[in-house]
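User: Before I run my own analysis I want an independent prediction to cross-check against. Here's the chain; please return only the structure tokens and, at the end, one sentence I can use as a sanity check.
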Amino acid sequence: MHDTFPADAARLASSDQPVLAILTIDDDHMQFRGNRQNFADLIQTGTEMGIPTYVVTVKDLKLNAHSVIGYTYLLREGRWVQDRFPRPTIIYNRIPLREDEQLPHVRRKLAAIARHTGIQMFNRRFFNKWMLFQWLHRDPKTRKFVPHTVKLTGIDSLARQLKRYRLLYLKPVRGKAGVGIMKVHFQPGKQLPFKLQVQEDKGSSSYRFATMERLWERIENVSQQIGEPYIVQQGIPLLMFKDRPFDLRVLVQKNLAGRWELTGIGARVAGLSSITTHVPRGGNIDKPAKLLNAIFGQTKAAKVLDEVAQTALVLARQIERKSGSPLGEMSLDLGIDHNGQIWFLEANSKPMKFDESDIRKQSLQRIFQYARFLHRRHRKAEGD
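Assistant: Structure tokens:
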């Protein structure tokens, strides 16, 4: 470990540039958890933009110390090294798992960061699916984009929704990467009218049942294995490309002025027999304009894409207002039906990195633009 950074800590902390720490959790085997390639890209971008950047764990982040132990990536050598760094002025929360974020010592540290007068943090916590839909349903400007959503409380609540909608999605409120999502299709007139598809760790399984009671037994079994409460959601018949449904993954981020701005839109086409469009589940990346042009024609496709961009910004503002804590970015999954109606499907406060190169480059830069905004606003408030 070197001792070069502490000598510069006071100078860096009082400069016009923020000091950004990527917050994660420690790991007994790998020092720290998280997407290391993403962290390395962030450190490289921070270096290019003149902003000191490093990875710090919850355990090593000492809020009252002038310097902290962290990690940086040596690009030429292709390895991570531990060092001392100035205490951060900005914290970008990338704790990778919900269960990590819920650990008592992690929750205590996040609360302490939020109270600290010299440190600003954004994207404090993962979203809860039920709360997301509640927040959006409460505002007339966003309500129209939200599929009908209720809590799954038992067989009666499921039966009521199946009477209303023949297609339903059942989602764990704190799910990740689509695991545990179920699709229920009611097909009256068939010998086995209830079809259930369950998204598992690898692939999906399908079942057919003659009665609601047998259907419910299987759903209850899956939900108990997942160990999370579920929501029931109106199924939206998404647009299809080559007989496979697709949705749009939209990344919105705060800019140098601290305002929400569109970073990019990608398309995700579902894999064969997959309930979701997640790429790890067999989905593939495609170009939104290409898919929409094939369905609507160029003129209407351009109009729909513009509406998607504007809708994402409206949704992001409402989510941030209701979340009660600062957000610097989020990804939103938006579906489109055959009428061109846009539907909100999901939002993520810890977006996965986009594989589209133009979106990826700008997404990295925006993190540091927003960090600069937070830093300058804080110094101005202090009368600096």
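Sanity check: Confidence is low (pLDDT under 50) at residues 2-14.
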